[in-house]
Q: What sequence folds into this?
């Protein structure tokens, strides 16, 4: 088996906490009403964001991830009975500043010290990813930020995973692909990447053709897999 030379991370839910925007607003003054439903809104928002990306990939009706993010939030707010344009704008604004998980800088720093290439591969639009990376101050720890916009289709289309080899000149089995999305880890495994599924919720493994090589509760497992 080839030595891993490149470690590639999904962004949303893997490096960045997708619940951070709703959680932050729920704790703000004057948001008692939203605080009572924020967890439902955040969960629905994420579910619809992903569902819309899959459906658009299947139908070929591509748009960028910012549009999908807005559409998912609108569905979630309507389901919760919240018709509040200011609330909507506040949540969307916070989504550009999602907090990274606590272990992220440490893990990326260890990979950098070990001489392993580091990248994001995400459904996010370039502008969204640039904002998230800058807000989390991770730019100096990454070699590349790869967006599906380069191929015009969302994951798990194989053309998205092709972007890694095109950028780094590596074979699939030289890549450790890390995602908190079970379906993403499964698709990447079927593609030929070595995979870590960061299963923060303790969910069952998805019944798909590919299966992740390793399952762990946080990103700390990267160091164990690579022996760094």
A:
């Amino acid at each position: 088996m080839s030595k891993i030379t490149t470690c590639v991370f999904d962004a949303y839910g893997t490096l960045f906490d997708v619940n951070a925007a709703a959680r932050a607003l729920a704790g703000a003054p004057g948001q008692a009403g939203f605080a009572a439903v924020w967890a439902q809104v955040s969960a629905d928002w994420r579910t619809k964001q992903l569902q819309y990306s899959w459906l658009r990939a299947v139908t070929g009706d591509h748009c960028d991830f910012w549009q999908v993010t807005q559409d998912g939030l609108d569905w979630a707010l309507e389901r919760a009975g919240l018709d509040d344009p200011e609330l909507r704008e506040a949540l969307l604004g916070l989504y550009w500043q999602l907090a990274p998980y606590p272990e992220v800088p440490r893990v990326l720093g260890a990979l950098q010290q070990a001489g392993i290439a580091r990248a994001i591969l995400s459904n996010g639009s370039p502008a969204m990813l640039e904002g998230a990376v800058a807000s989390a101050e991770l730019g100096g720890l990454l070699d590349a930020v790869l967006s599906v916009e380069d191929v015009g289709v969302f994951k798990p289309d194989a053309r998205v995973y092709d972007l890694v080899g095109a950028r780094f000149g590596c074979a699939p089995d030289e890549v450790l692909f890390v995602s908190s999305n079970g379906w993403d880890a499964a698709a990447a495994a079927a593609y030929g990447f070595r995979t870590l599924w960061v299963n923060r919720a303790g969910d069952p493994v998805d019944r798909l053709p590919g299966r992740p090589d390793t399952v762990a509760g946080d990103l700390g497992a990267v160091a164990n897999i690579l022996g760094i």
The chain has a mean pLDDT of 97. The CA atoms of residues 55 and 150 lie 19 Å apart.
